[in-house]
């Protein structure tokens, strides 16, 4: 307990210094010192889970070899993490790398691994299937004394409160929570079939199916530890099974495994990661084209702030409004409302910045293309100024080329999508982590090398860890209220977005139609005049023939520019997506309100919320990755 207390004090002091630095520097946007930038560089962490047999299935004569193997694994892990930090300076925070063991502290393998962990300087997180006073009834007096001592030394501890003592469903949920909290599962297993719900064999099988590495320590001590992992396959199976998964020597493979799990991506992905974690300049420049378009179509009112990118501090506060109820939960609450909130704030604001730049760039391109056509045709009306009009047209075309080249060189659309994806992953993490769901391996990219967004989201989840709390009715009520607040916020956004995008699309469509109607009317007027009146004369200083030629060439070009803006902006599909998402969120809200308040049901609803919110990112990516900014043609 003393060791844990000193650690918590050190972390509290670090956060207080961080907040003082922000206050002295004039707010979030101006932070540039190393202490402040440390907030965005994740602390390197690795989380082991433990499952295994209890006596008498795990015999006492095999206890020491289990401890020894676990201690050796933890020692190898510490060395591997240290190597990763040295290989990648500037990415991780200044705090030392951390190894954590997540355990249910059941008699037998769980306790043996926890003892080895504490003896190796590894931190302990406890996931209990019942509150301690209920769980104690599953132990003898001597055995509970050992578990209780370990529980006192745990960095954080949670307990499920939905089940009666001895209920196998509680052990099943606790086992799944250990999986969600872990990168690697240590399994002390005799290799035999499951003998009950939530047992060791079931937990191992679920871990393998989730592409989670499992280190099998033979409960009988007859063979050395082996690694079971779908990542060892030449072609990673979609749903690996316990019987078919590849195996290799665990201690030999562990350093490479940890590197695969925890080392940052390489190449361009690492460059993007480094850019994100470094101090950022204030985004003070203005971008006019996109806000002006929305105002011109009546989709949104034009405000002074419309031309500015969003502020990180506003995004930070929006997330804190949803998770502020958990701020008092010591280490977890401090990290949730500081590191996670600030990382979300940066990702959300940067996504808004790149979205504004990208959208303004393609609107400006099409508008300038229309202007270039108008300048070219104006030579018909002002022949004496032809050379100046051609010069102006050339300048406009050069501006289009420079704008397109700059947008593609900066990779605006890709940066926007990546940062939007990261913001949503962190927003969902802030909610799911309150239920203990880190899902470090149950992600969309399986065992493949993740991009920097998935890597960073996982690194933040590892650092956040476990909410030390009894998941009783009072706590679950708080989680449900936060989830409903988030759903309401997102539903309101999507309802407003659906309306504004539909309005903009409809207005652009009508404008395009008006230009085509104008072209038809100009053609009919000219033909009628030529047929019934004779040779067209002049209209003021301009010849009617030249005016008609000007209009019938310019109007279709402007209509085409408006069509290009509609297609590039994806207004109709965006409106439809937001309408569908708002409806799905409303249905989810109704379901949550009707549900009996239980941990299992909230887990299911949290998972559904993630599916709804991330589906939009995948649809955006499908659209915009096939339509980067290009020259209007």
Molecular structure report:
- The chain has 633 residues and is α/β, with parallel strands linked by helices.
- The protein folds into three domains: 37 residues; 222 residues, Rossmann fold; 292 residues, no CATH class.
- The chain has 20 helices and eleven strands.
- The strands form two sheets. The chain has a nine-stranded mixed beta sheet, sandwiched between helices. A two-stranded antiparallel sheet has the order 10-11.
- Strand 5, helix 8 and strand 6 form a beta-alpha-beta unit.
- Helix 3 crosses helix 9 and helix 13 runs antiparallel to helix 14.
- The N and C termini lie far apart (69 Å).
Provide a quick synopsis of the model.
62% of the residues lie in helices and 8% in strands. The protein is of the alpha/beta class and 633 residues long. The chain folds into 3 domains: 37 residues; 222 residues, Rossmann fold; 292 residues, no CATH class.
Keywords:
disordered N terminus, 3 domains, 20 helices, 62% helix, alpha/beta, Rossmann fold, 11 strands, 633 residues, 9-stranded mixed sheet, two-stranded antiparallel ribbon
Low-confidence stretches: 1-35, 443-448
Helicity, as a percent range:
55-70%
Number-wise, the strands total 11
The strand line-up of the biggest sheet is 8-7-6-5-1-2-3-4-9
């Amino acid at each position: 307990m003393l060791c844990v207390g000193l650690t918590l004090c050190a972390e509290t002091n670090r956060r207080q210094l961080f907040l003082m630095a922000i206050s002295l520097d004039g707010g979030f946007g101006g932070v540039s010192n190393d202490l402040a930038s440390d907030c965005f560089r994740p602390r390197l962490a690795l989380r082991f889970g433990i499952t295994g047999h209890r006596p008498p299935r795990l015999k006492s004569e095999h206890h020491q070899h289990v401890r020894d193997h676990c201690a050796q694994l933890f020692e190898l892990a510490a060395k591997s993490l240290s190597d990763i930090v040295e290989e990648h300076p500037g990415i991780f925070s200044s705090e030392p790398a951390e190894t954590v063991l997540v355990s249910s502290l059941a008699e037998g393998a769980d306790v043996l691994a926890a003892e080895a962990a504490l003896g190796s300087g590894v931190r302990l997180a406890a996931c209990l299937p019942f509150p301690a006073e209920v769980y104690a009834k599953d132990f003898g007096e001597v055995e509970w004394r050992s578990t209780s001592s370990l529980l006192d030394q745990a960095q954080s501890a949670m307990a499920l409160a939905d089940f009666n003592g001895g209920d196998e469903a509680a052990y099943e949920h606790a086992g799944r929570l250990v999986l969600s909290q872990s990168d690697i599962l240590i399994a002390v297993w005799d290799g035999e079939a499951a003998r009950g719900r939530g047992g060791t064999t079931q937990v191992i099988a679920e871990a393998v199916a989730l592409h989670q590495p499992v280190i099998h320590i033979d409960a009988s001590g007859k063979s050395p530890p082996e690694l079971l992992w779908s990542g060892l396959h030449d072609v990673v199976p979609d749903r690996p099974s316990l019987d078919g998964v590849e195996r290799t020597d665990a201690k030999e493979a562990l350093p490479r495994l940890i590197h695969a799990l925890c080392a940052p991506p390489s190449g361009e992905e690492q460059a993007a990661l480094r850019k994100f974690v470094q101090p950022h300049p204030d985004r003070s420049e203005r971008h006019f084209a996109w806000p002006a378009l929305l105002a011109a179509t009546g989709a949104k009112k034009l405000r002074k702030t419309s031309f500015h990118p969003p502020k990180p501090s506003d995004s930070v506060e929006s997330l804190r409004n949803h998770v502020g109820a958990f701020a008092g939960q010591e280490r977890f609450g401090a990290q949730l409302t500081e590191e996670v909130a600030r990382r979300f704030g940066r990702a959300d604001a940067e996504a808004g910045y790149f979205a504004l730049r990208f959208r303004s760039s393609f609107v400006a391109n099409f508008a300038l293309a229309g202007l270039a056509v108008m300048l070219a045709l104006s030579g018909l009306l002002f022949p004496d100024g032809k050379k100046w009009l051609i010069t102006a047209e050339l300048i406009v075309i050069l501006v289009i080329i420079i704008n397109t080249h700059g947008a593609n060189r900066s990779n605006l659309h890709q940066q926007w999508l990546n940062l939007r994806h990261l913001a949503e992953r962190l927003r969902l993490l802030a909610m799911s982590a309150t239920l203990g769901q880190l899902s470090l391996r149950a992600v969309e990219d399986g065992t493949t090398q993740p991009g920097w967004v998935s890597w960073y989201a996982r690194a933040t989840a590892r650092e956040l860890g476990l909410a030390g709390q009894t998941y009783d009715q009072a706590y679950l009520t708080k989680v449900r209220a936060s989830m409903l607040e988030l759903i309401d916020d997102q539903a309101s956004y999507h309802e407003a977005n659906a309306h504004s995008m539909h309005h903009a699309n409809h207005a652009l469509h009508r404008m395009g139609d008006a230009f085509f109607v104008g072209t038809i009317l100009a053609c009919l007027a000219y033909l009628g005049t030529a047929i019934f009146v004779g040779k067209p004369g002049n209209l003021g200083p301009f010849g009617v023939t030249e005016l008609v030629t000007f209009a019938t060439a310019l109007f279709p070009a402007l209509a085409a520019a408006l069509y290009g803006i509609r297609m590039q902006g994806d207004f109709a599909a965006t409106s439809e997506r937001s309408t569908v998402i708002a409806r799905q969120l409303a249905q989810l809200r109704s379901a949550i309100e009707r549900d009996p308040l239980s941990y299992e049901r909230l887990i299911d609803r949290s998972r559904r919320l993630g599916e709804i919110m991330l589906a939009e990112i995948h649809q955006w990516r499908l659209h915009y990755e096939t339509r980067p900014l290009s020259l209007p043609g």
